[in-house]
Every structure is written in structure tokens, then in C-alpha cells.
Amino acid sequence: MTSTPTRAAELPPSAPERSAVYVPGTWARRAAAALSFRNIGAVYVWLVIVVLFTVWAPDTFPTTITVKQVLNGNAVAGLVALSVVPPLAARVFDLSIAFTMSLTSVLTAHFMVSAGLGPGTAIALAMTAALLVGVVNGIVVVVLRVDSFIATLATGALIQSLITMVTNDSSITGVRLLAEPFASIAQLDAGGVTLPVLYLLLAALAIWFLLEHTATGRRLYATGFNADAARLQGVRTDRLRFLTLVASALLSGFAGVVFTASVGSGSPTAGTPYLLSAYAAAFVGATQLRAGRFNAWGTVLAVLLLGTGITGLGLATSAQWAASLFTGSVLIVALVLTGGRIALPAVLRRRARTRPDPSTSKEIR
Amino acid sequence: MGTELTGPVLRVAGLSKRFGGTQALTDVELEVMPGEIHALIGPNGSGKSTLIKILAGYHHAEPGAVAELDGEPFGLGQVEASRHDRLRFVHQELGLVGELSATDNLALSHGFARTAFGNIRWREMERRTSALVERFGLGIDVRRPLAAATLVQRTVVAIAAALQGWEGRRGVLVLDEPTAVLPPGEVARLFDIVREVRDAGAGVLYVSHRMDEIFALADRVTVIRGGRRIATRPVAELTPRLLAELMAGEDMETTHRPAPRTGPTNPVLEVRDLWAGPLRGVGFDLAGGERLGITGLVGSGHEIVPYAVCGAHAGQVSGRLRLPERSEWWTEARDASGLGLPLVPADRAGEGVIGDFSVGENLTLPLLDRLRSRSGRLRRRRESDLAQDWIRRVGVRTAGHGARIATLSGGNQQKVVMARCLAGRPPVLALCEPTAGVDIATRLQLYDLIERQADEGMGVIVSSSDTQDLLALCTRVLVVRDGRIAREISGRDITEPALVHAMEGTE
Questions:
Q1: Could you give the CA distance from residue B237 to residue B133 in angstroms, rounded to a whole number?
Q2: Which of B298, B377, B403 sits opposite A214 (nearest CB)?
Q3: CB distance A219–B299 less than 8 Å?
Q4: B347 within a domain of the structure (yes/no)
Q5: Mean pLDDT (whole number) for B183-210
Q6: Is the pLDDT of residue B206 over 90?
Q7: Contact A213/B378, CB-based, under 8 Å?
Q8: What is the pLDDT of residue B3?
Q9: Which residues cross the membrane (chain A) (predicted)?
């Protein structure tokens, strides 16, 4: 008999469940759980915002133009936000996404404008560069075992130096970038809704399927929640972490290509403004739908919520500082309302990377 | 020393403690005299640690307990400054910060010397620390991070931290199994230090479960077993044999006795020349239907065996193993994970369950490949059927397979871990401390579950430092001492005294 019961043993077995779990019961109870504030609080906040701005700016806000503006204007932000979801599910931080996005933006422009290549080749080369970034990130984080938070900051700096090398820190512009067929990648529209919105939907669909409906997704979450336990169950945690870094580099790289096509220039700082908003959306998203898990639709919801708010503020006031104030407030409020019960950054959790030797683990901490 | 009092410096009486349904301590009494090394000895789970934790204020005692320091009563289960002055602890975990130096660590428990401006007077801090640490003469660099120090150096720093500002007072230094990780050569140095503390007039309460240490060091010994004080004797009046009998309770009847298996069965696992951690060449055969126990004292390395067999040991491993029914080829021990044998790990929260996952998700994690449709989609319905089926079979008490596993009791979590291992129908199941932190009723259910699996032909390896597990469960027990299998006990010969003698080497 061990005289010290574990903490788990002292937990009352009847502790309330989180809403993320399937609760057997009537259809009505399940519907109530699905529509609860805890599950989709962001939807209600979003509705409040819509009503608020409709009252505040009745002439400009409640229009189809605003709807299109919110959708088109946030598609790239949504892609970048989605790119951090798979790594975060496995508790890996990829802070280099912003730089990867800038890299593909300037490379696409560079290959088309300076090297005179066709759009297909240029995009392929830029995406190859993004793939390389992902592989390098994977090597540093997984093989060399550097904490992902710091490692991807470092690789981000390396990418920035590459960008400066190509561009001398000035945007690459050219008529070819604005011409068909390249520009249509971002500017083709159906009823005013442009193609990037479709990309966002497809990416969300793919990540949702991966995380919710495949074994790989389940293993990603297992890796994120308790890598030691997952490893003992045969989950190849290192390989999964590596792959999430490749995925985030590819998706953020693709966002860079779309960005270039939509603005018609390759900007060396294209990605920078998207970094914080991507993490804000992913973290707010993790409080939605699958509370405690980074997930695709929650993230999209958060992007739209933040996008609507910022667009509304832009229409209602001219205060430049309002947008960031709004983003920060939403992030804090969302995290507080859900009890902050989502994954902490790995660097803040003092957890051993490998299992300590059981013969000594009891004595030396 | 101040006034010469003849009474005990620490007295505890009528101390009881319950954890839920478990009676950890019953009416325990203890007296430590000044200038004495008083050993507290008992098998694993006897209640030693609980007693220490109550003294240290981590747990509350049940009402009715009396505790006095030098005749002055103090409250058990609360941290008081006055008591802290007299009663100092060196816990098993030492409570040091490895990244910091000895100086920093001492300052953490006793404060920094500062100037009038508030900045730290490092020179003085280092001098103070050196003075405390040098007394033990181990050449500790007080500026280097402790992570770089040897184990005995760290232990010394922990003792020095406990003794700060305490010189010459009447008090009690409590050492909780300080030698558990020390190499044999360094134990003697530690003993000298402990004697020095005693000779300065303090009482020392020395917790151990190694009898050799008691005879080398202690003046008196209190034996506790099953949460009760069995005896307090001067060590001079005892022989190792006598002490072992007190510890083991020679006359204790054994409760749940599994019938020894009859007739020869084929081996399902063969392990040869296994080296890992403290293990130095361990080998054995495991027959189908056999429930093989592996045990030893803390530090013997017995708990590594299941990890090594499953390829889950973090350190260096060598040796080879084979599943004769599956293949005639031997597998190198470092590639053992390729055999895919399931492990019920010792640290349930850290390695066993994924707390943020539901019961079902925990159960099916290693089985996901089987639940995939051709398109790669997970078959949710089949997954929940599988989970529900196993929840029923092993009798997990839960609100449903969708409930978060962290909401379950430790015993029920353990059942989920077991079910997950069994669902793959492995030829061998390896368990490490399977009943740690599990209440008695669930413990019996777990025994029953393991027994049923073995009866169906599975080979079971149980590493446990809890003799109750071994007595109730095993058909054969290997006792590991000094990294080797020192003794093999099987069938009716598995008794508590036999196990204790074999572990301690007092046969």
C-alpha cells in the first residue's frame, strides 16, 4: 500500500465534465450543449458586435459590401491562423510563419519580375523554399531538440536575412504581378467573394478532417497533451512534430503567394502583421467548439470575429489604435471566459522532454 | 547546548491518519531523544512517508494526536515558524534547484544577505555557505550549479540548507531515505555527517527501509508496519534477523494466495543479460500464464525491468530478448519497442493517461490503426463500441466513454490503462507498480483482472515494491539486489518474511 495517494485518486469521480466531450443523452440536451455559450461563445459575441455596429454605423456597416470586405479582407489572415493550428495541437510553436509568408511573397515576385519566370514555375519555386523552411524548422526543433518557441524565432531571423538578400528590404513590384493569370489567384471572384475565401474554406476543411477524423489527428493531440504517455503508446511524437512544422511552413508560404497576388507586389514584411493575429485567432479558436483543443473551425470563427470587429471599428471611428485594442481585449476576454484552460506554451510548462530514468526520478527533481 | 533536559526532544502520540478509505496510520507514537539517531523503519507503504509528511505539515493528522517539541505542544499539519526553528527536514526529493548554486539554494531557504541598498552581498553569502558546507568536507564549489554536483554533494547541500542558523540548538533533523540514490561508497560519508549532527546534541530521525543502515548508524529504531508502531528498541539489543521479523511480521497470515501453476508451459518471453540503469545482467524466462513478480529495494533497479522489456527505458539498455512463440530470432534490448509489448507504467499521470483526453480516446490511442476505414477516416462508431466494450469488461466506473479521464479515480484510470494494453491481445503484459495510489477494493479488482488474463495464457511481469502486490498476485518472484537477481522465490514460498529477507540480503 502506498501511503500517498496520487492527486488523481483524490479527485471526486463526479467532477463536472467539459463541454468538449460527447455526453450521452437526449437530442435536446446535446443541442443545448452544442449551442451553449461555453461551446460557441464567440458566435454570440460576434452577434453582439454585429448588432452594436449596426446601431453605431447604420449607414455603412449593415451592408453586403461589409460582408464581402470582412470575408475577402481576412482570408489571408485566416490561412495564416490555420497554419499554426496543427503545430499547436502537438504543442509546437511556429513563430517563423510570418517570415515564411514574407519569403514566399518576395520570392514569387522576384522569380516573376526579376527572373522572368512564368507564374507556375515561380509559385513552385517559392513553395519549395517554404518546404525547406519547414524541414529546417523540423530539424532544429525535433532533431536538435531546441524548444520550438526559441528555435522558430531563430529560423525566422535567418529567413528575414534571406528576404533582405533578395529584396534589399524594398518591395518588388511589376506589371506581371498585376496581370492575368497570376493576379486571378487572389482576385477572381464570384459575386464579390474572392478565391482566397475558398482557399480558407478548403484549408479549414482539410485541417478539421485531419484533426477530428483521422488517427494522425488524434495522435497529434495526444502528442500535445502528454508526449511521454503518447510515446509509450507507440505514437511517433517526433515525426508528428516534424510534419506539423512542414505543414505550417507550407500553408503560411501559400498565404504569402496569395498575398502577393492580391496586392500585386512582393513585400519583405508581408507576413509581419499576421503573426500576432494568427496566434490570437488560434488561441481564441481553441476555446470554441472543442474547448481545450486547437481546432480549425474555432480558429476560422475567431478570425471572422476579430475581422468583423476591426472592420466595424474602421467604419464607425477613425481611431487608428482601436483595432489592436479590440484584438487584445477579445483575446483576454475569450481566455478568461473559458477559464484559460488551453495549452500553455511549452516553454512555460516545466515538463521534462524525455522520461527521466525511473531509478532516479524520485530523488532528483 | 543550553539547559540539560532529559526528556525527549520530539514526542508524538496517538497519531492517526486516513486517506479516503485507507487507514494510513493508526495510533502511532514516537519519541526522539536529544543526541540520538532514531531510525524509523518499515516496508514500503507502511506509513513512514505519511508520518514524515504530517510532521512537516503537508498533511493534517486526525484529531486526538499529541505532538511536542521539548515538551512544548505544536500543531500537526500546519507549518509554523516556531516549529520550523526546531524541526528541520531533508526530504527524499531534497528540494533543491538544480540550475542554481549551493549558495543560491541555501539562500532560498534562509534568505539573502543584503546591503542597505537591497543588493545581495554575494561575498558574504558565499562565505556563509562555504562555512556550512565545508564542515562536511566534500569540496563543493558553492558557485557552481548543483546539477553538476555529485549525488552525495547534493545531499550534503540539502542537509546544510536544513541546518542553517540552527547550530547548537535542541532540535530534530529529519532525514527521509537520504541514501536511496547514493552509491555505496558515498553512504559512509553521509553517515559521518549524520553522526556529527547527533554529536552536536540534536536528535536525528532517520527514515529508511534498509536494515544494514540501521545497524551501521542508529541508536534506537522504531518499526512501523501497516500504519502501526510495532516496536521501539535500542539497536544494540537487535539482530538483523530479529529486526527483519519485526518488519515483516513473521506470523502474519497471507491473505490472497494464488495457486501455483501446475504442469509445464512454454515460455512466451525470454530475457537475457539485461543491463539498464543499475541492472547488471538480468535474465529470466516467462511462461504463458505465469505471473512473475520483480522486486527489490529502492535503487535496485527492479522497476526498470518492465520498461526495458517494452523498449521504454529512457537510458542506455543492452541485452536481448525473444518471444519464442512469435519468432526464433533474438531482439536487441534497445530495439525492444519494435516487439510492441504493452506497458502499464508506474507514473500514471505522467506516462499512463492523457488527462485532457476522454476515457475512450485514452483507451483507443494505440488501436487507432485498427479503427481506420480504407479512406483513412476514423470509424467513430466502431471506436465508441470498442471503448464501451472494454469499459464494461474491466469494470471502469465512469459517466461514459466521453468523460474526461482526469475525472476518474486513480484506480479507474488504471483500469483504462490496463484495458488499453489488453485490447491489443499481447502475449506478454508488463506492469510497473500497478496499484500505486489505488484503493483496496479497486486493487483487488485489478488483481483479479490480471489473474484472469494470465489464466487465458498471457505472461505477466509485475514490478512492484509493494509486497502486497507480490503476495496477492505472483506465482514466482525475482528479487533484485545490487543490480542482479539475488533470489527466486516461487509458489508457497512467497511470503512477506522471505521477500523482506531477500530484498535486504539477510537470509
A1: 35
A2: B377
A3: no
A4: no
A5: 82
A6: yes
A7: yes
A8: 46
A9: 39-58, 70-90, 97-117, 123-144, 149-168, 188-211, 240-259, 271-289, 296-315, 321-344
The three-class DSSP label of residue B474 is coil
A225 vs chain B: nearest CA distance in angstroms? 6
Q: Does residue B165 have a pLDDT over 80?
A: no
- Shortest Cα distance, chain B CAs vs residue A291, angstroms: 10
Pick left, alpha or beta for residue B344 (phi over 0 → left; psi -120 to 50 → alpha; otherwise beta).
beta
Are the Cβ atoms of A1 and B406 closer than 8 angstroms?
A: no
Residues B161 and B228 in one domain: yes
Which positions of chain A have pLDDT values less than 70?
Answer: 1-25, 337-365
Number of domains in chain B: 3
Minimal CA separation from A78 to chain B, in Å: 25
* Class of A39-342 in CATH: mainly alpha
ipTM of the complex: 0.79
Q: Are A278 and A83 in contact (CB under 8 A)?
A: yes
Asked if B468 and A1 come within 8 Å (Cβ–Cβ), the reply is yes
Buried b (16+ CB within 10 A) or exposed e, A223-245: bbbbbbbbbbbbbebbebbbbbb
The single residue listed with the C-alpha cell 449596426 is A54
Cis-peptide into B324, omega within 30 deg: no
Q: How far apart are CA B408 and CA B358, in angstroms?
A: 10
Same domain flag for B32 and B131:
yes
**pTM for this model (two decimals):** 0.74
Task: Tell me how close the Cα of B7 comes to any Cα of chain A, in angstroms.
Answer: 30
Range of the domain at B149: 10-248
Last residue of a domain, one of B408, B425, B442: B425
Option in B92, B307, B372 nearest A362 (CB): B92
Summarize pLDDT for B209-233 with one digit per residue, the tens.
Answer: 777 788 889 999 999 887 889 889 9
Clarify whether residues B244 and B167 are in a common domain: yes
Nearest to A11 among B24, B180, B409 (CB): B409
pLDDT of residue A175: 79
pLDDT of residue B385: 92
Q: Among A99-103, B97-101, B173-177, where is mean pLDDT lowest?
A: B97-101
Asked if residue B153 and residue B66 are part of one domain, the reply reads: yes
